Amino acid sequence: MNKTIMHIDVNSAYLSWSALEKLHNGSAVDLRAIPAIIGGDMAKRHGVVLAKSIPAKAYGIVTGEPIVNALRKCPGLTLEAPDHQLYHRRSQELMALLADFCPDIEQVSVDECYMDYTPISSQYPSARDAAELIRERVCRELGFTVNVGISDRKVLAKMASDFKKPNLVHTLYADEIQEKMWPLPVSSLFMCGHSSVEALRKLEIITIGDLARADREILAAHLKSHGILLWEYANGIDSSDVVTTRAKAKGIGNSITLSHDAEDRETAHRVLLSLAESVSRRLRAAGQTAGMVSTEIKYHTFQKVSHQTMLSTPTNHTSAIYQTACGLFDEIWDGTPIRLLGIRSSKLSSCEEPVQLSLFDLPAQTREAALRPPSAQKQAQLDDALDSIRRRYGANAVVRGSLLPPKKP
What we know:
four-stranded antiparallel β-sheet, five-stranded mixed β-sheet
């Protein structure tokens, strides 16, 4: 199974976040709607442009240029000083929201990250549908916009997110680069800075397509190893993976924003089974068992409710986590249409730690499931076999029949 990677990038992050903060504090002016920039020292009028509004961009103002140049282009330009504490807080809010969709995130700056969509691909009709949900939820809940690029390569996902803005989703798969990327100027290529553009111009390389068709040896002679890197990017060559560096987990969970509100118990339980598989698989991969399970519901009104319970026997078995999550769901669901469902495990311990089994301390629903075959040992063997198949052939190599979409008549 081919991997799918998303690149999520906030549109004019600093300016958007400052604009939202000023509006929250009672300002009648939205910085995003007027020629405005973030950066520099307003009193001394020096420094560089860190972010610009779309109206400011219409004056030819570019990120990174001196503020004095920007003021010459637009004398009525509004300047706002950066607030890095605010930006850090907003960044944390964004990453927390994205983790609701998938925890496999590589944050590369305060306003952008890569997401490995592959492990959650079975939960959505398509990668574009998932990306549209991400884009819509960020706009609705956080108040700013993002672009989402989708590809099978990290560099192409990054390039796709830089296509037309704001608040849009774009794809750039390997088989689309000739149509979508090669006609662009080389200055649009990731990692191709001003000096590289000038060096390539002297070689009569103007577009990314020119670069992709250029002789590697000539590029190496003029731009050394960086020339080879640019040639590979122009041809969509990038084997790097999404690298997540998370601290030791206090809990492992997963949640999903549904494409359509769930209105019946059976649909919700089917979603919980998919989430339980994901959570238990990650627990086993981390060599952990969970002593507590919680179920979260967000209604279509955006009201949140959750319930949790201790397990007398820590577990990482899919069936046990699923049965517990369903029991919790049945206790708290009031029949209101559901927008989001989540399962979270906590009270983690190593699989190597000895545990005292106590069948009769389990919740009744879990106890009944435990009394039915397969046995705990057979369940563990089944989970290990499924994990092995998915590691080798991909997350969707084997799927429970109950999670398959209904057959069309």
